[in-house]
Amino acid sequence: MSLIEIKNLKKYYGKFLALDEVDLDVEEGEVFGFIGPNGAGKTTTLRIILGLLRKSSGKVHLFGSDPWHDAVKLHRRLAYVPGEVNLWPTLTGGEVIDLLGRLRGGFRQERREELVERFKLDPTKKCGAYSTGNRQKVALISALVSDVELYVLDEPTLGLDPLMEGVFRQCIKELKKEGKTILLSSHILAEVEALCDRVSIIREGKIIETGTFAELRHLTRTSITVDTIQPISGLDELAGVHNLSIEGKHAHFSVDTEKIDKILKHLTQFGVQSLISAPPTLEELFIRYYGDEYSSLE
Ligand code: ATP
After folding, report:
1. pLDDT for residue 97 is more than 80
2. Protein residue closest via CA to atom 29 of ligand 1
3. I need a surface site. Which of 80, 93, 163, 284 has the fewest CB within 10 A?
4. If pLDDT is split at 50, 70 and 90, which confidence band does 214 have?
5. Binding pocket residue ranges, ligand 1, CB within 6 Å
6. Is 60 exceeded by the pLDDT of residue 101?
7. DSSP H stretches of helix in 51-92
């Protein structure tokens, strides 16, 4: 069953078309990644899904209802971490967690304590005094403490250090095991790769690709380093081989992922002694779309 269903969604800010015919389907129980560079339209899409922003046209269903009309009812079934976390500066982190958690219909005290402990948050400090990372932790704990069906997380690890990113990932994996649905936007590719069952890539308001990571691999290349007993020949004539460098019995190249089988068969005739293969990353997939523009963003 689709928890979120979007068809032909358009959003104008004045004359500026921020979302152009966006389609998105998030199924119950999946971790869905929404990736794209800054300004691509991720936050706009999430805010429309949540009924916080009005669409210009198209169909948007959340739990089978129109989020703009039924926002109050629907929000009891989900938890949201906004991209920019603004907290009440005079409340402590603990007070914010309690307040937001109660607004979502309450939570178990042990779950709250467990999360505060795992994220190593000092809940007694005023929000105005927290660093960006600590404010993010407060927002995350406030969402994760709630036992809801859907978690919508906009750039959830912004400002978290790698250790805390690890804690976050573990929490998401546990929620998935419990059958929860998670929609997570990110421009951090490793995060999406590590967590998500399916991803959609958005660029300049348009979805350019949707699928499982395995399905998207036809767009990616695997890098291979190989040592053989006999000198290697003929690799340069095979389709799918790129950036080839050969020195006698040692070769390094990248290969279109769907051509790997043929290339490995070719290599075995020279007697493979060692082979190192690096799997494609979503990052490479991205570079093929964004090219220099993406490199300069990084
Ligand atoms: P980021 O990660 O930087 O938040 P994003 O993918 O979430 O990026 P959005 O915030 O959805 O992108 O913005 C999409 C586009 O719409 C951008 O070009 C942005 O400048 C524009 N935009 C967003 N909010 C408004 C607004 N209130 N008025 C006018 N333009 C807006």
Report:
1. yes
2. 13
3. 163
4. confident
5. 13, 16, 18, 36, 38-44, 83
6. yes
7. 67-75
